[in-house]
Structure to design on (508 residues):
């Protein structure tokens, strides 16, 4: 039997997954890699650490799956999006990668929009406004602050594409990931000549881009030896973690949306057509379905807000959970369930690390608003879960403003594991929510893409249909849906009222 390997280069580590020819997950394994912060707001990683963790995770998962390495018929790659990888002519990284959550490039964002003739013009060229996460801002930062390094650049890649280089010796990117660089003409699904000309980028450093299921190269002898696999295994284009995760969630057709609660939160919809948001509230990218598109919004501290609450205010619950041998989140969620819906007017703004969607404001700050003498820890913890879900609903609202039809929302991540939080999401989103049997996201998505690219399935939709099924359905409760519509309207007024104050606070 043939098996397929999915490798996802995440921020904190790499996940490897083995899938069988019917789309069933056989085994997974992870290996960590470090992150560095040379200055406040800076985030960097060493590309060779990604390769080391990919090797470790792959060896571990093949052993865990108890399969013959000769049975691996294809490899798919996913990874954190936007990270800048620049190499010399031999493929050696010239510096650490500036990764997606590095915040040093605010001035480059302004420079980019000014140079092209404004935000609307930039959106018309590449589908999105300039944000600190996007890769062109990082490339321009290196050119300005490290010119000697910039002058040596021969190749530009994204994180997963560096791992591809190590696997195959090929410099190749693919459309879904490169959509997040601010350099791709998404309508043409190729590099934007206007952007290249405006910013005087040497086009020779940019790799060719392909669709996600296309074969980009084959495993070299050296890479095969490192991974414990066989030389010649085909490696497909794969996808950025969000488009690849959408494949892993089966969100590959119109009317479906995914809401994923990890450290960050991502709300994602598929679109057969190219649709941009004129205000740049949500991002438009090429999808991992050939010739089609997607839109998504990213909430920077979704599950991260709940984790912060646990770490800072949950010492009692952590100690009690240790005695009871349960997860502290079980106790915290039980407290949240004991509080009244709406928390008697208490709101939490989850901007612990600034915010991306819809405000694109690195200076936004988290806060509670509306405490009174009846407020208890029950309301505090419930308001965190409500606030995070309201923030996710901001992206959903932006989609609806663009007349994007949403019939079903597929929940994943931490917010999908709790019965309480699943129902809370259904009530706040006002839409039927479901969970599915697949929980591995991007790694599973690119394993499916590898199966498509090597001929096991005729297309991505057939692959998703083979492996994915709904496991539970949650419908919104009419009374709470109405209550949360009122509370969400109040929530929407809070950021605009505090925006200027956040800017002043950042100066303190």
């Amino acid at each position: 039997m043939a098996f397929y390997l999915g490798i996802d280069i995440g921020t904190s580590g790499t996940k490897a997954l083995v899938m069988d020819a019917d789309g069933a997950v056989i085994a997974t394994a992870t290996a960590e890699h470090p992150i560095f912060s040379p200055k406040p707001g800076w985030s960097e990683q060493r590309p060779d650490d990604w390769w080391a963790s990919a090797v470790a995770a792959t060896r571990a998962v093949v052993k865990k799956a108890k399969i013959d390495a000769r049975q691996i018929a294809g490899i798919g790659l996913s990874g954190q999006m936007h990270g800048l990888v620049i190499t010399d002519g031999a493929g050696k990284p010239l510096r650490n990668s500036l990764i997606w959550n590095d915040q040093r490039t605010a001035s480059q964002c302004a420079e980019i929009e000014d140079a092209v003739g404004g935000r609307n013009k930039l959106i018309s060229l590449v589908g999105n406004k300039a944000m600190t996460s996007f890769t062109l801002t990082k490339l321009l930062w290196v050119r300005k602050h490290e010119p000697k390094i910039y002058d040596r650049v021969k190749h530009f890649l994204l994180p997963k594409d560096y791992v591809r280089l190590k696997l195959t010796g090929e410099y190749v990117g693919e459309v879904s990931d490169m959509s997040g660089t601010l350099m791709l003409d998404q309508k043409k699904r190729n590099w934007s000549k206007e952007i290249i000309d405006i910013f005087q980028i040497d086009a020779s450093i940019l790799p060719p881009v392909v669709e996600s299921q296309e074969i980009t190269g084959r495993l070299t002898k050296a890479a095969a030896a490192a991974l414990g696999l066989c030389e010649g295994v085909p490696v497909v284009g794969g996808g950025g973690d969000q488009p690849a995760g959408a494949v892993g969630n089966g969100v590959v057709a119109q009317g479906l949306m995914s809401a994923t609660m990890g450290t960050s939160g991502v709300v994602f919809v598929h679109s057969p057509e190219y649709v941009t948001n004129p205000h740049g509230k949500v991002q438009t990218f090429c999808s991992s379905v050939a010739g089609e598109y997607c839109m998504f919004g990213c909430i920077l501290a979704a599950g991260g807000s709940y984790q912060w609450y646990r770490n800072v205010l949950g010492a009692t619950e952590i100690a009690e959970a240790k005695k009871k041998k349960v997860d502290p989140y079980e106790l915290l969620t039980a407290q949240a369930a004991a509080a009244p819906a709406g928390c008697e007017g208490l709101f939490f703004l989850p901007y612990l690390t600034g915010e991306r969607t819809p405000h694109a404001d690195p200076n936004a700050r988290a806060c509670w608003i509306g405490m009174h003498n009846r407020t208890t820890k029950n309301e505090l913890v419930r308001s965190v879960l409500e606030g995070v879900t309201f923030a996710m609903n901001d992206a959903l609202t932006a989609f609806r403003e663009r007349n994007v039809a949403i019939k079903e929302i597929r929940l994943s991540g931490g917010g999908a594991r709790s019965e309480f939080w699943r129902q809370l999401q259904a009530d706040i989103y006002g839409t039927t929510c479901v969970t599915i049997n697949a929980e591995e996201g991007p790694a599973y998505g690119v394993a499916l893409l590898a199966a498509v690219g090597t001929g096991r399935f005729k297309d991505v939709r057939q692959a998703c249909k083979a492996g994915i099924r709904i496991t539970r359905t949650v419908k919104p409760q009419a009374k709470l849906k109405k209550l949360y519509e009122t509370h969400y309207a109040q929530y929407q007024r809070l950021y605009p009222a505090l925006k200027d104050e956040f800017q002043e606070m950042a100066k303190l």
